[in-house]
Amino acid sequence: MSATRTTRIAFSQRGQSAGDTAGRGRTVMQKDFLSILDFEPSDLRRCLDLAADLRLDRVARRALPRKRSLAGAHVALLFEKPSLRTRSTFEIAIRELGGEVIEPNRESAFGSRESLADVARNLERWVSCAVLRTFDHRVLAEFASVAPRLHVVNALSDQEHPCQALADMLTLRDQWSTLAGRRVAFVGDGNNVATSLTHAAAMLGVTVHLANPAGYELPDQRIEEARAVASDGCRIERFDDPRDAVRDVDAIYTDTWTSMGQESTAEERRRVFAPYQVNAELMSLAPGALFMHCLPAHRGEEVTDEVIDSAASVVFDQAENRLHTQKALLVMLLADEVAC
Fold it and tell me: How far apart are the C-alpha atoms of 211 and 104, rounded to whole Å?
Protein backbone atom coordinates (compact mmCIF):
# COMPACT_ATOMS: atom_id res chain seq x y z
CA MET A 1 0.00 0.00 0.00
CA SER A 2 2.75 2.45 0.87
CA ALA A 3 4.03 2.38 -2.70
CA THR A 4 0.79 3.92 -3.94
CA ARG A 5 0.39 6.60 -1.31
CA THR A 6 0.99 10.21 -2.30
CA THR A 7 2.37 13.17 -0.44
CA ARG A 8 -0.17 15.04 1.64
CA ILE A 9 -0.37 18.74 0.82
CA ALA A 10 -2.20 21.58 2.51
CA PHE A 11 -4.97 23.46 0.72
CA SER A 12 -5.25 26.72 2.64
CA GLN A 13 -7.94 29.35 2.49
CA ARG A 14 -7.23 32.22 0.17
CA GLY A 15 -4.67 34.58 1.63
CA GLN A 16 -3.60 32.14 4.36
CA SER A 17 -0.58 29.90 4.57
CA ALA A 18 -1.07 26.21 5.26
CA GLY A 19 0.18 26.71 8.78
CA ASP A 20 -1.90 29.77 9.53
CA THR A 21 -4.01 29.08 12.60
CA ALA A 22 -6.75 31.25 11.14
CA GLY A 23 -7.28 28.48 8.60
CA ARG A 24 -7.74 25.75 11.18
CA GLY A 25 -11.20 24.97 9.81
CA ARG A 26 -9.52 23.49 6.78
CA THR A 27 -7.97 20.04 6.90
CA VAL A 28 -4.83 18.75 5.24
CA MET A 29 -5.86 16.92 2.09
CA GLN A 30 -4.33 14.59 -0.43
CA LYS A 31 -3.35 15.55 -3.91
CA ASP A 32 -4.99 12.25 -4.89
CA PHE A 33 -7.69 9.96 -3.55
CA LEU A 34 -6.66 6.42 -4.36
CA SER A 35 -7.66 4.84 -1.07
CA ILE A 36 -9.71 5.53 2.04
CA LEU A 37 -6.32 5.41 3.77
CA ASP A 38 -5.42 8.63 1.95
CA PHE A 39 -7.84 10.29 4.37
CA GLU A 40 -7.21 11.12 7.97
CA PRO A 41 -10.26 10.46 10.18
CA SER A 42 -10.98 14.20 10.21
CA ASP A 43 -10.98 14.20 6.38
CA LEU A 44 -13.46 11.35 6.28
CA ARG A 45 -15.80 12.99 8.77
CA ARG A 46 -15.55 16.30 6.96
CA CYS A 47 -16.38 14.62 3.65
CA LEU A 48 -19.52 13.06 5.13
CA ASP A 49 -20.57 16.36 6.72
CA LEU A 50 -20.06 18.24 3.47
CA ALA A 51 -21.89 15.55 1.49
CA ALA A 52 -24.89 15.85 3.80
CA ASP A 53 -24.89 19.63 3.35
CA LEU A 54 -24.62 19.35 -0.42
CA ARG A 55 -27.49 16.89 -0.47
CA LEU A 56 -29.68 19.34 1.43
CA ASP A 57 -28.70 22.10 -1.00
CA ARG A 58 -29.64 19.90 -3.94
CA VAL A 59 -33.00 18.88 -2.49
CA ALA A 60 -33.83 22.52 -1.71
CA ARG A 61 -32.42 23.66 -5.08
CA ARG A 62 -30.40 26.26 -3.24
CA ALA A 63 -27.94 28.23 -5.40
CA LEU A 64 -25.21 28.62 -2.79
CA PRO A 65 -21.57 29.56 -3.50
CA ARG A 66 -20.61 25.87 -3.68
CA LYS A 67 -22.63 25.60 -6.87
CA ARG A 68 -19.69 27.28 -8.61
CA SER A 69 -16.99 25.50 -6.60
CA LEU A 70 -15.41 23.98 -9.73
CA ALA A 71 -16.04 26.90 -12.09
CA GLY A 72 -13.19 26.95 -14.59
CA ALA A 73 -12.06 23.40 -13.73
CA HIS A 74 -12.07 20.51 -16.19
CA VAL A 75 -12.25 16.91 -14.99
CA ALA A 76 -11.39 13.91 -17.19
CA LEU A 77 -13.38 10.68 -16.76
CA LEU A 78 -11.22 7.74 -17.86
CA PHE A 79 -13.20 4.50 -17.72
CA GLU A 80 -11.58 1.22 -18.68
CA LYS A 81 -14.50 -0.71 -17.12
CA PRO A 82 -18.25 -0.25 -17.76
CA SER A 83 -20.22 1.86 -15.32
CA LEU A 84 -23.71 3.15 -14.59
CA ARG A 85 -23.54 4.62 -11.07
CA THR A 86 -19.93 5.83 -11.08
CA ARG A 87 -19.99 7.53 -14.47
CA SER A 88 -23.42 9.09 -13.99
CA THR A 89 -22.78 10.40 -10.49
CA PHE A 90 -19.35 11.85 -11.25
CA GLU A 91 -20.60 13.59 -14.38
CA ILE A 92 -23.59 15.06 -12.56
CA ALA A 93 -21.43 16.08 -9.59
CA ILE A 94 -18.90 17.89 -11.77
CA ARG A 95 -21.56 19.74 -13.75
CA GLU A 96 -23.58 20.71 -10.68
CA LEU A 97 -20.41 22.17 -9.12
CA GLY A 98 -19.82 24.30 -12.22
CA GLY A 99 -17.01 22.21 -13.73
CA GLU A 100 -16.61 20.76 -17.20
CA VAL A 101 -16.30 17.07 -18.10
CA ILE A 102 -14.17 15.47 -20.81
CA GLU A 103 -14.32 11.75 -21.57
CA PRO A 104 -11.40 10.52 -23.70
CA ASN A 105 -12.14 7.15 -25.25
CA ARG A 106 -10.74 3.98 -23.75
CA GLU A 107 -8.23 3.36 -26.53
CA SER A 108 -6.72 6.83 -26.14
CA ALA A 109 -6.64 6.81 -22.35
CA PHE A 110 -5.23 3.43 -21.42
CA GLY A 111 -2.00 3.08 -23.28
CA SER A 112 -2.91 1.40 -26.55
CA ARG A 113 -1.67 4.42 -28.53
CA GLU A 114 0.91 5.84 -26.12
CA SER A 115 2.26 5.15 -22.67
CA LEU A 116 0.11 5.74 -19.59
CA ALA A 117 2.74 8.14 -18.30
CA ASP A 118 2.45 10.26 -21.44
CA VAL A 119 -1.36 10.24 -21.20
CA ALA A 120 -1.14 11.53 -17.63
CA ARG A 121 1.46 14.17 -18.50
CA ASN A 122 -0.73 15.46 -21.31
CA LEU A 123 -3.86 15.57 -19.19
CA GLU A 124 -2.25 17.52 -16.37
CA ARG A 125 -1.65 20.37 -18.85
CA TRP A 126 -5.38 20.58 -19.63
CA VAL A 127 -7.46 19.34 -16.69
CA SER A 128 -7.45 19.66 -12.92
CA CYS A 129 -8.45 16.11 -12.08
CA ALA A 130 -8.59 12.64 -13.65
CA VAL A 131 -11.17 10.14 -12.37
CA LEU A 132 -10.07 6.61 -13.28
CA ARG A 133 -12.03 3.36 -13.25
CA THR A 134 -9.56 0.63 -14.15
CA PHE A 135 -8.67 -3.01 -13.69
CA ASP A 136 -5.14 -2.54 -12.36
CA HIS A 137 -4.50 -0.36 -9.30
CA ARG A 138 -0.99 0.29 -10.61
CA VAL A 139 -2.48 2.44 -13.37
CA LEU A 140 -3.77 4.86 -10.70
CA ALA A 141 -0.44 4.87 -8.91
CA GLU A 142 1.41 5.65 -12.14
CA PHE A 143 -0.95 8.48 -13.06
CA ALA A 144 -0.54 10.00 -9.62
CA SER A 145 3.25 9.71 -9.54
CA VAL A 146 4.11 11.10 -12.99
CA ALA A 147 1.69 14.06 -12.98
CA PRO A 148 2.34 16.13 -9.84
CA ARG A 149 -0.22 18.81 -10.76
CA LEU A 150 -3.01 16.38 -11.61
CA HIS A 151 -5.45 15.22 -8.93
CA VAL A 152 -6.21 11.52 -9.43
CA VAL A 153 -9.34 9.84 -8.04
CA ASN A 154 -9.86 6.09 -7.80
CA ALA A 155 -13.34 5.39 -9.17
CA LEU A 156 -12.66 1.64 -8.81
CA SER A 157 -9.67 -0.63 -9.21
CA ASP A 158 -8.98 -4.29 -8.59
CA GLN A 159 -7.72 -3.45 -5.10
CA GLU A 160 -10.00 -0.74 -3.72
CA HIS A 161 -13.27 1.13 -4.26
CA PRO A 162 -12.99 4.12 -1.92
CA CYS A 163 -15.74 6.23 -3.50
CA GLN A 164 -18.22 3.44 -2.77
CA ALA A 165 -17.08 3.34 0.86
CA LEU A 166 -17.76 7.07 1.23
CA ALA A 167 -21.36 6.50 0.13
CA ASP A 168 -21.64 3.47 2.39
CA MET A 169 -20.57 5.44 5.45
CA LEU A 170 -22.95 8.32 4.68
CA THR A 171 -25.80 5.83 4.24
CA LEU A 172 -25.07 4.18 7.59
CA ARG A 173 -24.70 7.53 9.34
CA ASP A 174 -28.09 8.59 7.94
CA GLN A 175 -29.63 5.47 9.44
CA TRP A 176 -27.88 5.43 12.80
CA SER A 177 -26.72 9.02 13.45
CA THR A 178 -23.68 7.66 15.32
CA LEU A 179 -21.42 5.07 13.72
CA ALA A 180 -19.04 4.20 16.55
CA GLY A 181 -19.98 0.98 18.31
CA ARG A 182 -22.02 -0.45 15.42
CA ARG A 183 -21.27 -3.77 13.70
CA VAL A 184 -21.33 -4.59 9.99
CA ALA A 185 -20.91 -8.05 8.44
CA PHE A 186 -19.48 -8.41 4.95
CA VAL A 187 -20.47 -11.75 3.42
CA GLY A 188 -18.88 -12.98 0.20
CA ASP A 189 -15.77 -12.21 -1.81
CA GLY A 190 -12.94 -10.42 0.01
CA ASN A 191 -12.66 -7.95 -2.85
CA ASN A 192 -12.08 -4.26 -3.49
CA VAL A 193 -15.44 -3.27 -2.00
CA ALA A 194 -14.73 -5.28 1.15
CA THR A 195 -11.32 -3.61 1.43
CA SER A 196 -12.58 -0.04 1.28
CA LEU A 197 -15.58 -0.77 3.48
CA THR A 198 -13.29 -2.27 6.13
CA HIS A 199 -10.89 0.68 5.97
CA ALA A 200 -13.66 3.28 6.30
CA ALA A 201 -15.65 1.43 8.93
CA ALA A 202 -12.61 0.91 11.15
CA MET A 203 -11.64 4.55 10.85
CA LEU A 204 -15.10 5.55 12.12
CA GLY A 205 -15.29 3.01 14.94
CA VAL A 206 -17.48 0.36 13.26
CA THR A 207 -16.64 -3.28 13.94
CA VAL A 208 -16.45 -5.42 10.78
CA HIS A 209 -17.20 -9.16 10.61
CA LEU A 210 -15.80 -10.83 7.49
CA ALA A 211 -17.21 -14.09 6.16
CA ASN A 212 -15.32 -15.15 3.04
CA PRO A 213 -14.91 -18.64 1.54
CA ALA A 214 -11.48 -20.26 1.76
CA GLY A 215 -9.28 -18.88 -1.00
CA TYR A 216 -11.36 -15.72 -1.32
CA GLU A 217 -10.51 -14.05 1.99
CA LEU A 218 -9.77 -10.38 2.41
CA PRO A 219 -5.95 -10.29 2.44
CA ASP A 220 -4.24 -10.10 5.82
CA GLN A 221 -2.52 -6.88 4.72
CA ARG A 222 -5.87 -5.13 4.28
CA ILE A 223 -7.03 -6.23 7.70
CA GLU A 224 -3.83 -5.00 9.33
CA GLU A 225 -4.23 -1.65 7.54
CA ALA A 226 -7.74 -1.35 8.94
CA ARG A 227 -6.65 -2.29 12.43
CA ALA A 228 -3.95 0.37 12.27
CA VAL A 229 -6.58 3.12 11.80
CA ALA A 230 -9.31 1.58 13.98
CA SER A 231 -10.97 3.82 16.55
CA ASP A 232 -13.39 3.59 19.46
CA GLY A 233 -12.44 0.00 20.27
CA CYS A 234 -13.81 -1.46 17.03
CA ARG A 235 -12.54 -4.81 15.78
CA ILE A 236 -11.97 -6.60 12.48
CA GLU A 237 -12.92 -10.26 12.87
CA ARG A 238 -12.92 -13.25 10.50
CA PHE A 239 -15.60 -15.95 10.48
CA ASP A 240 -15.74 -19.27 8.62
CA ASP A 241 -19.52 -19.52 8.85
CA PRO A 242 -21.59 -16.59 7.50
CA ARG A 243 -24.28 -17.36 10.06
CA ASP A 244 -21.83 -16.67 12.88
CA ALA A 245 -20.64 -13.51 11.14
CA VAL A 246 -24.07 -11.93 10.82
CA ARG A 247 -25.55 -12.90 14.16
CA ASP A 248 -26.91 -9.74 15.83
CA VAL A 249 -24.99 -7.28 13.61
CA ASP A 250 -26.50 -3.95 12.57
CA ALA A 251 -25.97 -4.32 8.81
CA ILE A 252 -25.20 -7.11 6.36
CA TYR A 253 -23.27 -6.22 3.19
CA THR A 254 -22.62 -8.37 0.15
CA ASP A 255 -21.32 -7.93 -3.40
CA THR A 256 -21.47 -9.86 -6.64
CA TRP A 257 -19.66 -13.18 -6.59
CA THR A 258 -18.13 -12.58 -10.03
CA SER A 259 -16.71 -9.14 -10.77
CA MET A 260 -15.79 -7.72 -14.16
CA GLY A 261 -12.79 -9.59 -15.56
CA GLN A 262 -13.61 -12.79 -13.62
CA GLU A 263 -16.26 -14.15 -15.97
CA SER A 264 -14.23 -17.26 -16.81
CA THR A 265 -14.50 -18.37 -13.17
CA ALA A 266 -18.21 -17.61 -12.76
CA GLU A 267 -19.41 -21.22 -12.60
CA GLU A 268 -16.84 -22.17 -9.97
CA ARG A 269 -17.60 -19.06 -7.96
CA ARG A 270 -21.33 -19.82 -7.93
CA ARG A 271 -20.54 -23.23 -6.46
CA VAL A 272 -18.10 -21.91 -3.83
CA PHE A 273 -20.20 -18.93 -2.78
CA ALA A 274 -23.62 -20.61 -2.67
CA PRO A 275 -23.53 -21.00 1.15
CA TYR A 276 -22.85 -17.25 1.41
CA GLN A 277 -26.08 -16.09 -0.23
CA VAL A 278 -27.86 -13.36 1.72
CA ASN A 279 -31.42 -14.59 2.01
CA ALA A 280 -34.28 -14.27 4.47
CA GLU A 281 -32.90 -17.04 6.65
CA LEU A 282 -29.52 -15.31 7.00
CA MET A 283 -31.13 -11.92 7.64
CA SER A 284 -33.27 -13.44 10.40
CA LEU A 285 -30.11 -13.99 12.45
CA ALA A 286 -29.69 -10.20 12.69
CA PRO A 287 -33.12 -8.78 13.60
CA GLY A 288 -33.43 -5.18 12.48
CA ALA A 289 -30.24 -5.26 10.41
CA LEU A 290 -29.91 -3.21 7.24
CA PHE A 291 -29.07 -4.87 3.92
CA MET A 292 -26.34 -3.27 1.79
CA HIS A 293 -24.99 -3.91 -1.71
CA CYS A 294 -22.83 -1.70 -3.93
CA LEU A 295 -24.73 -2.82 -7.10
CA PRO A 296 -25.11 -4.13 -9.70
CA ALA A 297 -26.71 -7.13 -8.01
CA HIS A 298 -27.05 -10.60 -9.47
CA ARG A 299 -30.44 -11.40 -8.01
CA GLY A 300 -30.81 -15.04 -7.07
CA GLU A 301 -27.07 -15.43 -6.60
CA GLU A 302 -25.50 -13.35 -3.80
CA VAL A 303 -28.89 -11.97 -2.70
CA THR A 304 -32.52 -12.94 -3.11
CA ASP A 305 -35.24 -10.63 -4.38
CA GLU A 306 -36.96 -10.97 -1.01
CA VAL A 307 -34.00 -9.32 0.72
CA ILE A 308 -32.91 -6.68 -1.77
CA ASP A 309 -36.49 -5.46 -2.21
CA SER A 310 -37.28 -5.51 1.51
CA ALA A 311 -37.72 -2.57 3.86
CA ALA A 312 -34.31 -3.43 5.34
CA SER A 313 -32.55 -2.72 2.04
CA VAL A 314 -30.70 0.60 1.67
CA VAL A 315 -29.03 -0.23 -1.65
CA PHE A 316 -30.60 2.66 -3.55
CA ASP A 317 -29.72 5.08 -0.75
CA GLN A 318 -26.13 3.92 -1.22
CA ALA A 319 -26.41 4.53 -4.95
CA GLU A 320 -27.85 8.03 -4.45
CA ASN A 321 -25.19 8.90 -1.90
CA ARG A 322 -22.48 8.20 -4.47
CA LEU A 323 -23.48 11.54 -6.00
CA HIS A 324 -23.33 13.52 -2.78
CA THR A 325 -20.10 12.05 -1.40
CA GLN A 326 -18.29 12.35 -4.73
CA LYS A 327 -19.41 15.93 -4.98
CA ALA A 328 -17.98 16.57 -1.51
CA LEU A 329 -14.75 14.81 -2.46
CA LEU A 330 -14.31 17.01 -5.53
CA VAL A 331 -14.92 20.15 -3.49
CA MET A 332 -12.31 19.04 -0.94
CA LEU A 333 -9.73 18.26 -3.61
CA LEU A 334 -10.32 21.09 -6.03
CA ALA A 335 -12.42 23.99 -4.77
CA ASP A 336 -9.68 25.95 -2.99
CA GLU A 337 -7.36 25.62 -5.97
CA VAL A 338 -10.03 26.84 -8.37
CA ALA A 339 -10.76 29.82 -6.10
CA CYS A 340 -7.10 30.85 -5.82
Answer: 39
